[in-house]
Design a protein that fits this description.
Layout (H helix, E strand, L loop, with lengths): L5 E6 L3 H11 L6 E7 L2 H11 L3 E4 L2 E2 L2 E2 H11 L5 E5 L4 H9 L4 E4 L4 H12 L4 E2 L1 H15 L13 H11 L4 H8 L3 H15 L4 H10 L5
Parallel strand pairs: 1-2, 1-3, 3-6, 6-7, 7-8
Antiparallel strand pairs: 4-5
Helix pairs in contact: 2-3, 4-6, 7-9, 7-10, 8-9, 9-10
Length: 219
């Protein structure tokens, strides 16, 4: 018995990526049909609300916005909404963030069309899919976390020093004050702060602090 055609909405802030995905999936039109596309979170929410697709394929970053925030909102509005991240970030911290946001898939953009369709079929059947390149590393990280070997924020990819810096950011200290507290140069602290922004997928200090509080990293 043939599978029903999956109705998919694409969300990516790069027009060339959208065009490439449409070209890839056009070869599987009987299995996957693109019913809508968006280049920012606001439009994506409107389209998904209107079209109610089977699956939303979303990038991790959406210009000035966050695919993680979009995923949280979509799942909050309709629990069970299937969101699959398709991204270039092959770091397990992003995978963990995506799953915590409610996503049911995390795939890398180097995937070919046939494999993407196969993974989407698994998602439609109720499975959670993870790119094979990440699955082993993620399992190892999860095992270390279970063993209590990690510091606050380790599951998000933060190093022990970055965790220290973030805790002091949450306490309201400036970069200069953090440098003095940790006996490090201010430029070193700025480098750690940039890494924290990247790993938490935020753009500024307020976003990093908000994420730390939301995740309950520090009491």
């Amino acid at each position: 018995m043939p599978h029903p055609t999956l109705r998919v909405v694409l969300v990516d802030d790069h027009e060339m990526v959208l065009a490439g995905l449409k070209a890839m999936l056009s070869k599987h039109v009987g299995e996957v049909r693109i019913v809508g596309e968006a280049r920012d979170a606001a439009k994506a929410e409107q389209i998904v609300d209107t079209l109610d697709p089977d699956i939303v394929i979303c990038d991790m970053r959406l210009g000035s916005g966050s695919g993680l925030d979009l995923c949280r909102r979509l799942v909050a509005v309709r629990p069970g909404r299937r969101v699959v991240f398709l991204t270039v970030y092959d770091d397990e911290q992003y995978l963990f963030q995506a799953l915590r946001a409610g996503a049911v898939g995390y795939l890398l953009k180097r995937i070919d069309a046939a494999e993407l369709v196969r993974q989407l079929r698994l998602v439609a059947a109720g499975e959670i899919v993870v790119d094979s390149a990440l699955a082993g590393r993620a399992a190892a990280s999860a095992a270390r976390l279970q063993a209590g070997e990690f510091w606050p924020g380790a599951h998000l990819g933060l190093t022990q020093r970055e965790s220290e810096v973030l805790s002091l950011m949450v306490s309201g200290l400036s970069n200069r004050d953090i440098a003095a507290r940790l006996v490090l140069g201010e430029e070193t602290i700025k480098s750690h702060v940039r890494a924290i922004y990247r790993k938490l997928a935020v753009n500024d200090r307020a976003g990093a602090v908000a994420t730390a509080l939301r995740e309950g990293l520090f009491q």
